[in-house]
């Protein structure tokens, strides 16, 4: 919107359009309110009338007002910024977008802004965290792919810096996190494959350093033991492997007499590669082989795969991450975690 398009609210008391970079004083001149009132209105101070807050915030948006973050940090020690550290690969297939959507929803009626901090290839994951903390570039940090003994978590705990991780660690100190119950998912998926007649189940695991790798393995081992079936963990590949490598592995493994007839998938991408490999190896998925996978987007079902799915909601995960981080920034220390439980669609189905 150009200044010529501004409504009368976007002009000062003399009807003159503001020029230069808008400031709190600019808005005060336009509204006739004190600068301190403007500041409180922009921060949604509850003691101000909603009409006043709405009017001030509308004018600020119309004239393009942005807070001076350097001045804010000097005055209050706060930046009103939340940093989300993402790898470029995490933007693919909607994971990063879903997290951003959920986090943004949780910050909607606050003074906080979300800033993406990229984690580039060949850069240690701790580096952007150190940079943010040492330069006080944010009031809190969100990151994913938590490892069993994650040095990012150790560093943030030691520096008493607010954060929340997507995934858990094994450090003895409690820390804020949001996670999905991968052990329960793997357990339920394995029992489902056994009920469909599978004699051996397999999974392409995440990187061995990630905490949820242990959770997936524990769930499969426990369920396979109970069901009396065999299991294996795919060798020489993991979730970070190229899809062609996963597909070729499944083709070769399926052609051996002891190959698995059931696969548990920790991601939609690996599921598509596994389904392709099974089909090329001559299996009819849903009959001679079975697949259970997590589903986090509508994209997967567009391929109409013969796989059973269990939803994992990354938008809700983002929402929970934002809410927990706001509580941590506010000084809370207890109950700052959330574990989403898998919902199995086959719970009420009968197996023929």
Automatic annotation (TrEMBL):
The UniProt entry, under SUPFAM superfamilies, shows: lambda repressor-like DNA-binding domains, Periplasmic binding protein-like I
Does Transcription count among this protein's keywords? yes
Molecular-function GO terms, alphabetical: DNA-binding transcription factor activity; transcription cis-regulatory region binding
Gene3D superfamilies cross-referenced by the UniProt entry: 3.40.50.2300, lambda repressor-like DNA-binding domains
Domain of life of the native organism: Bacteria
The UniProt entry, under CDD domains, shows:
HTH_LacI (cd01392), PBP1_RafR-like (cd20009)
According to the record, the residues making up region (Disordered) are 1-23
UniProt keyword annotations, A-Z: DNA-binding, Transcription, Transcription regulation
- Annotated HTH lacI-type domain ranges read 22-76
| Name of this chain's protein | LacI family transcriptional regulator
């Amino acid at each position: 919107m150009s200044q010529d398009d501004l409504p009368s609210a976007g002009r000062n008391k003399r009807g003159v359009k503001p020029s230069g970079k808008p400031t709190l004083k600019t808005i005060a001149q336009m509204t006739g309110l004190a600068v301190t009132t403007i500041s409180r209105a922009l921060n949604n101070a509850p003691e101000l009338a909603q009409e006043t807050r709405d009017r001030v915030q509308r004018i600020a948006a119309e004239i393009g007002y942005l807070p001076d973050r350097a001045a804010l940090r000097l005055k209050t020690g706060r930046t009103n910024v939340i940093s989300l550290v993402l790898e470029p690969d995490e933007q693919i297939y909607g994971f990063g977008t879903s997290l951003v959507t959920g986090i943004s929803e949780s910050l909607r009626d606050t003074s906080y802004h979300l800033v993406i901090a990229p984690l580039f290839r060949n850069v240690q994951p701790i580096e952007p965290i150190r940079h943010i903390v040492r330069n006080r570039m944010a009031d809190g940090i969100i990151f994913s792919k938590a490892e069993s003994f994650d040095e990012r978590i150790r560093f943030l705990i030691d520096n008493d810096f607010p954060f929340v991780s997507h995934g858990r660690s094994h450090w003895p100190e409690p820390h804020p996190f949001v996670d999905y119950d991968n052990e329960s998912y793997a357990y339920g998926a394995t029992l489902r494959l056994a009920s469909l007649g599978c004699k051996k189940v397999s999974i392409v695991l995440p990187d061995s350093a990630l905490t949820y790798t242990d959770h997936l393995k524990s769930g499969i081992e426990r369920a396979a033991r109970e069901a009396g079936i065999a299991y294996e963990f795919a060798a020489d590949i993991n979730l970070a492997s190229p899809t062609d490598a996963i597909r070729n592995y499944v083709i070769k493994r399926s052609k051996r007499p002891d190959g698995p007839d059931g696969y548990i998938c920790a991601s939609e991408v690996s599921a598509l590669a596994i389904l392709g490999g099974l089909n090329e190896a001559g299996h009819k998925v849903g009959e001679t082989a079975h697949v259970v996978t997590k589903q986090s987007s509508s994209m997967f079902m567009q391929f109409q795969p013969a796989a059973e799915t269990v939803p994992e909601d990354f938008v809700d995960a983002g929402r929970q991450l934002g809410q927990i981080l706001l509580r941590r920034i506010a000084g809370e220390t207890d109950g700052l975690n959330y574990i989403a439980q898998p919902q199995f669609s086959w719970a009420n189905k009968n197996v023929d």
